[in-house]
Amino acid sequence: MRVKQLEHFMGEGWQLRPAGGATGEAYIAEQGEQKIFIKRNSSPFLAVLSAEGIVPKLLWTKRLENGDVITAQRWVDGHELKATDMNDTRVASLLSKIHQSKDLLHMFKRMGNLALTPEHLLGKLMHKRERANFEDATITEAFKWLVENIPLLSEENYVVCHADINHNNWMSNGENHLYLIDWDCAQVADPALDLAPLLYIYIPKTTWPKWLEIYGVDMSVSLLNRMRWYMIVECIDNILWYRERNGVKEMLKWSDKLKNVLKERD
Questions:
Q1: Final residue belonging to a domain, choices 14, 41, 75
Q2: Domains: count for the chain
Q3: Among residues 237, 217, 221, which one has the least CA distance to residue 164?
Q4: Beta partners for residue 99, in sequence order
Q5: What's a Pfam family in this record (predicted)?
Q6: Is 77 considered catalytic here?
Q7: Distance of alpha carbon 140 from its chain centroid, rounded?
């Protein structure tokens, strides 16, 4: 939906501008002193996320004649976390709250969403590689390791994962409240799906035990192995993504990261 169409929907006096993001469906709407965040077809469990204080407060939801759903949230004057901010104890606490939320899990399952198993995730990644027709010795080695080390975790222990924990998706307001926004990629999965990229990318390994203690678990061998598995998947996925877009610098960065994770002792 174009900005002019949304302005017409909002009514006289509202001015909209793109709010950024990968989907291009988010806008900042302003009318005088009023300022709200508008999005088309955002996560269907936004109401639960809002009620639990995980995202900024949901103000209203409206369905258009064409079936699109428009949501409005309270605008938060704050800032995105920097990569160096991710060691903040609030990050571990909020992610723990999300992973422990039975309301989120119940709503997600009620909508018919199936759990993302390691086997399913690996199959999707293999398909991406075949489509890319990309031969690489390190990736071949990585796939062999993934097949031989598929994580074992009962689906009853799966949680709602955000699945895109990039530091840009964490927002702190002026009152020191932390939000995790942009839930378009959310999945029911092993919590290690979120923990792996967060810890590997942002948290020094020497502080993993303390970070996980705040999160609420021990740094067990099982968890470490599962995080390693999901991190290798993350690396391959990013290599293929940047290769398709000719992002050579980023592709090499993820390739180096993949080699380092593969070199870890079993």
A1: 75
A2: 2
A3: 237
A4: none
A5: APH
A6: no
A7: 26
Same domain membership, residue 127 and residue 248? yes
Catalytic residue among 77, 85, 88, 164: 164
| Domain ranges, residue 229 | 83-262
Residues 51 and 119 in one domain: no
The verdict on 125 and 162 lying in the same domain is yes
The helix/strand/coil state of 15 is: strand
Strand partners, 240: none
- What pTM value is reported for the model? 0.90
Instruction: Measure the CA–CA gap between 103 and 195, rounded to whole angstroms.
Output: 21
Each residue's pLDDT expressed in tens, for the chain with a length of 266 residues: 466 667 667 777 788 888 765 555 788 888 888 888 888 877 778 888 999 999 999 998 888 777 788 888 888 888 899 999 999 999 999 999 999 999 999 988 888 788 999 999 999 999 999 999 888 999 999 999 999 999 999 888 999 999 999 999 999 987 789 999 989 899 999 999 999 999 999 999 999 999 999 999 999 999 999 999 999 999 999 999 999 999 999 999 999 999 999 999 76
User: What is the Cα–Cα distance from 19 to 28, expressed in whole angstroms?
Assistant: 6
